[in-house]
Amino acid sequence: MPFAPAQAVYTVADIRAIESRHAGAEPPLMERAGSAAVSQTLTLLGQSGLPPLIVCGPGNNGGDGLVLARLLRSRGIEPVVVLAGDATRLPADAREAFDRFCGEGGAILPDIPQRAFALAVDALFGIGLQRPIEGAFAGLVGRINGLGCPVLALDVPSGLCADTGRVLGCAVRADATATFIALKPGLLTLDGPDHCGAIGVCDLGIAAETTLPPRGRTVTPALFASYLKPRPKNSHKGMMGGVGILGGAPGMAGAALLAGRAALKLGAGRVYVGLLDDRALAVDTHQPELMLRRPADILSAGFATALATGPGLGQGAAALGLLRDALAADLPLLLDADALNLLAAHPVLAQHAKKRSAPTLVTPHPLEAARLLGSEAAAVQGDRLRAALALAERLNAVTVLKGCGSVIAAPDGRWFVNASGNPGMACAGMGDVLSGLAATLLAQGWAADLAALSAVHLHGLAADLLVGGGIGPAGLTAGETIDAARHIFNAWLHSGRNGN
Question: DSSP letters along 86-112, please?
Answer without folding.
Answer: -GGGS-HHHHHHHHHHHHTT---BSS-
